Amino acid sequence: MTLFIKELSFRWSDLDPNFHVRHSAYYDFGAQHRIEILESLGLTMKVMQAQGFGPILFREECVFRKEIKISDKIFMHTKTSKMKADASRWSIVHEFLNDDNKLCATITVDGAWMDTKLRKLASPTPEIAVQALSIFPKSDDFVSL
Hints:
This protein has helices at about 25-40, 45-50, 125-135, and strands spanning about 5-10, 55-65, 75-85, 90-100, 105-115, 120, 140-145. The protein has three helices and seven strands, in the order βααβββββαβ. Strands 1, 2, 3, 4, 5, 6 and 7 form a seven-stranded mixed beta sheet that branches. By secondary structure, the chain is α+β, with helices and mostly antiparallel strands. The model has no long low-confidence stretch (mean pLDDT about 95).
């Protein structure tokens, strides 16, 4: 099984006035990692544009457990936690773990694929999207929708 793990590098602009990572930076890291993963699986922005579809989110939530500071070594693990068999709906979880393997935060996103020409949910799900999401590792509590 493929693992999607990324070591994060924090910038001064990622900090809040309390000198820990600001809440919105977590969402930025999650979004960037999802796009990097899709790109690595061949589902590039160019492919999505040519085929007229892209990912959309219905919900994005972060639960903060432990503050992260600029010098902390943090690894983000990305997995699917829910998915329909046709990959039309899915949930992706990003776990932010420190170098002691302690959970600092969890982002959960619920999404689908949108037909960018019709501006409606893509039906059927483009095959390249089905293939890409089938490669994602699954969380321990994965649910098939």
